[in-house]
Input
Amino acid sequence: MKISHRIGVDVDKALGQALEDLNISITAVPEISGTTSTTRMIVFDIYEDDPSWDAVQQLLQGHEPSDVADAEFTSSEVREASWCGLFGPQLGYPQPIDTFQTTTYDVSQRCASCRAGVVQTAPFRLKKPTRWERRGLMQLHWVPGEVFVSRGLWSAVFEPAGVSHRPVANRKGNVVDDVVQLVAEEEADVVVDEFERSDCGACGRSRYVQGPGYLPAIDGAAPQCSLFRTRQLFGSGWETYQPLVVSRAIVNALLDSGRTGPAFVPLAGG
Ligand SMILES: [Zn+2]
Output
């Protein structure tokens, strides 16, 4: 696993030169014409195992850079992991955008701040999805814990593994045939001691931040199923979720399917 950082920072001539002297390949962000600033905005990518990583961090001290960190796993790290978190591209929004919470969930126990405590009572409604057969799997904005798969991928990979599913509806609420929502019948505890907390200030629920890198290891015996949710909550602000985790057999079947949608984050602990 390697952690990459995409860093954006406002630099003067000296700092820009110092970065280039470290062989950092910087890209200047186009300036607004007519500005007379003596600094310029640049972006660059760097891995934490880059020999210049420590020096770059020292140079940037006090310059308030933006930093988007991401984890890159090798193919064998993903294929050989016992369990992986299952994610996909976030394409589209649950429908109707303004009222999906109340049309999809029983919200009587919902925390107004973190939105935990909802119980799904109706199918998610989607705009007509596109390119299902190429992607096979996707997520929606605003509901990071839910994964949707094409009927074809469901039949090929998830159904034989005994995974449950729910129907999905179109914008009008009519069930559609070409996509289903994955359902976890079980939850398992994971070891979150090392994870940053983001507890909800309103309801007091414990919550953790999923940073770049491995998801936490299973705490105790692994569940006897192919797909489960972490019992622990993750997220921040009003996004609260329990990641879906799938077995090595499902990970490898999804990779072998050639679909571009599935993305994996291995759990720590092998
Ligand atoms: Zn809350």
Observations:
- The chain is about 20% helix and 30% strand.
- The chain has two domains: 2-72, 81-266.
